[in-house]
Amino acid sequence: MTFRSRLLLVFALAVMVAVGTVEWIVSDSTRQAFERLETQRVDALVAQFRREFARRGQEIVRAVNGIAASDSALNIAVALNQKAPDLSPFVNEAAAQASTHGLDLLELLADDGTIVSSAQWPARFGYREAWVAGLGGQPPRGAFLRRDELPDGEVLALAAVGVAAAGDRRLYVAGGQRLDREFLSTLVLPAGMRVLLYTPQALVEASGPVLQAAPLAPLIERARRENRELSGVVHWTAEASGAETFHVIPLGGAGNGFLGALLVGSSRRELVELERFLRWTGLMVAAGGVLLGVVVSWWATARVTRPVMQLAEGAREVAAGNWSASVEVHSRDEIGQLARAFNRMTHELVEQRERLVQAERVAAWRELARRLAHELKNPLFPLQITVENLQRARERYPEQFDEVFREGTATLLAELANLKQIVGRFSEFARMPPPELQPVDLNRLAAATLKLFEPQLAQARVSGRLELDPGIGPVSADPEQMSGVLRNLALNAIDAMPAGGVLTIRTRRHGTTVRLEVADTGQGLTPEECGRLFTPYYTTKTHGTGLGLAIVQSVVSDHKGRISVESEPGRGATFRIDLPAENP
Prior knowledge:
The protein is an alpha+beta fold. Helices cover about 50% and strands about 20% of the residues. It has 4 domains: about 70-180, 2-Layer Sandwich (Beta-Lactamase); about 180-265, Beta-Lactamase (2-Layer Sandwich), CATH 3.30.450; about 335-430, no CATH class; about 440-580, Heat Shock Protein 90, CATH 3.30.565.10. A hairpin with a 2-residue loop joins strand 15 and strand 16 (about 515-520). The two termini are about 35 Å apart.
């Protein structure tokens, strides 16, 4: 993955993580704030309901107590003290009193539960109410919820009980008002909220019966079973914005039994739409951030990678041998400092190379002069001795001069030939001609070289072996110089096996190069000898000038190749030459 791709990925991830975190925090905070506001609104609505409930209860208590204290109630109580009271004149009394005091429900009952008069159901005259017997002469104080039977079913009512006493008998006045849609219409509801009233017979709201009550049934059943306040989300349709959060408040009677429930519903449309808005806003901000990240990463990487690529190109030029390569500096930031440091490095490298080349050149000429002086000194000493012997023989032994002259001239000619050979080798090393490159088949060259040395191999008890790869292809080389390289390496291998052995020449393809190996099973070399083996005038043999492997290295270097040696004492040596393969 490129630096530009990584930077873009980092920018995109950073933007998405940041936007996602902010969106989650804002959404969560918004949801919590909405829930707090909803709780406050529900609490306020429930408090309003309870205030209205208490106010109406007080009105009902006053109305019931007023009826119980009226002359009509006292007359009925007096009539109840008779042995065989006739209560028929009071059948319509409850309806008149209910209309006067604004009550929906009113019953006048004897202390044994007999209905004297009923405003909501006159036909029940003379029936008995079982709940009266459970009062024990002490009616409940204040208003309470109860269920009342009507001809069309039960209703939930807010009721109160008053007492009118005369003699030993009592008259109970039970009156109240229905808890229905008219009661709900008196509540002031905030926008987005509604109130429902549940009774076993119906589920109503201020506008009328609730037609789709099935989704609320599990919540109401749970509230009835647990008889406590609870809340839940009701989904009316598949659309999330149409859902409502309902808070259910159970309504109990004087005995704390479950009589009904008040349901406060709050629409979730605002919350859902706000969450959608935040989500889309987050996505748009993220998309904008990613786009901005692309632009910024493109600009940043262009600002960073272009100088880095220039530095890399400069480093490649230095690696290729152009030590004077430099890069242009256009900024004063860290990249500019790096470019200036690179230019200083290449400048110092050039200076150090020049100093090193000069030092190496001086050292090489000194070593060359020392070696040449040493090589020339060896034949000069016999020449000097021979000339001195000739002079001495001429002066002291004239009769033997001819014989000494013949021996001396033979020695002089031999040593002069040796000097000529030394000077010739030196001239050959100093004036190596550039190679004349052409396609060369190394396999054929290796086979010809091994065939050329068959007599020497047989005389030295060395067996020759060829391991040639037919698929190596030709190399671009000078056939004469490469033949000389092979002959030199073969002679060195034969000299390294005085007791016989195996000389192996192998070729093979090695990546983009062709490898030529000359291996022997001779005495081998130490690591120190391997390190100095290609130094001019260095030799491990008792004869030779020490220029052979130096010439081999020079030829290989002129062919843009590389030569190396691998050896251990007692395990032979392997010379490897890597040459560039010729392009097809």
